[in-house]
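Re-run with default settings, no changes from the original entry. Doing this only to confirm the output is reproducible before filing.
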Amino acid sequence: QVKLVESGGGLVQAGDSLRLSCTASGRGFSSWAMGWFQQAPGKEREFVAGITGSGLDTYYASAEKGRFTISRDNAKNTMYLQIDSLKPEDTATYYCAAEETPIRFDSDPWNPLRYDYWGQGTQVTVSS
């Protein structure tokens, strides 16, 4: 049984940094492609970043490059999202997702339909 649990969210001020974590249970973590998505109030869930099982390849929504960094530690079954220079518009619930048997992950890491498992989300609120 695969379970994803996000943590690290909270109330922060604009300009602060935050590191979100996604810890997974289940076998085969190092082979899963994974991603981070954000959902702001009243908006659809949007892709933030994706990473292959090895961690060697990463993908970002074009708007997030530079402030967001995705990484993973396969020994700890954990994926991370570092967010720097936080802005009020980053306020959202952040979800992690996993694709258990990725095929051509590079073709569309932003596609939520490719992911098999989702966490419950962690709330990030940025005050100005």
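Residues 40 and 92 are 4 Å apart (CA to CA). DSSP finds no helices and eleven strands in the chain.
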